[in-house]
Amino acid sequence: EDQVTQSPEALRLQEGESSSLNCSYTVSGLRGLFWYRQDPGKGPEFLFTLYSAGEEKEKERLKATLTKKESFLHITAPKPEDSATYLCAVQDYGGSQGNLIFGKGTKLSVKP
Amino acid sequence: EAQVTQNPRYLITVTGKKLTVTCSQNMNHEYMSWYRQDPGLGLRQIYYSMNVEVTDKGDVPEGYKVSRKEKRNFPLILESPSPNQTSLYFCASSSIAGVYEQYFGPGTRLTVT
Q: Are B33 and A100 inside 8 Å of each other by CB?
């Protein structure tokens, strides 16, 4: 059975304190791994797609990386506006094309 | 403005009273999907549609129905709601080419008493 586990559940950082969020996954064959950001009371917002081990994507202070078993979302010198819940999702080659499985998320708080 | 809209945004109803949550997108997307989000359980897929008249079950389809008669609309139907369907519901859409780069709606908070 597909499984997506995110850690930590919650992370508190000081402004400027870099860190990483983890997403480990178990699938029969990875079609793609996706990162989303969710602000309180809003729908998730797409950030990145990663398809193969070794791939990296960057956007402002965020950088996503992928290995065969996990993905990391690195946050460099975060700002308070980076506070949100970050969701990881995977799609399995063994599953239906439209089926997406989400992790429970990491709630990030960045204090000024 | 490109967007996914959901209505209503908030709904309180009673057990067994049929309800429909509407979802509409203005981006000509082929793919649409419904999710529910619960504390401690995360975001779980209910149903999805790859195109008009094509729908498929997600991970938690029990107690829900969907239809896709038009490309822009994908309503979620609860024929006989129960308290365990109290949740925050999100609709999402995307092009087939970027099927996982989904645009999400603002959410519908449903309470079933």
A: yes
**pLDDT top residue among A46 and B99:** A46
B42–A46: do the CB atoms touch at under 8 Å?
A: no
A103 to chain B: which residues are within 8 Å by CB? 42
The answer on pLDDT for B96 being more than 80 is no
Strand order of the sheet with strand B65-66?
B4-7, B19-25, B76-78, B65-66
Distance CA B44, CA B53 (A): 22
Q: Is residue A85 scored above 90 in pLDDT?
A: yes
Closest-CA residue of A relative to B99 is A98
Q: Residues A2, A97: contact at Cβ < 8 Å? A: no
d(CA B57, CA B70): 19
User: What residues of chain B lie within 8 A of the CB of A44, using their CB?
Assistant: 43, 90, 92, 102, 104
How far apart (Å, rounded) are the C-alpha atoms in residues A45 and A48? 10
Residues B65-93, mean pLDDT to the nearest whole number? 97
The pLDDT score that the predictor gives to residue B40 is 86
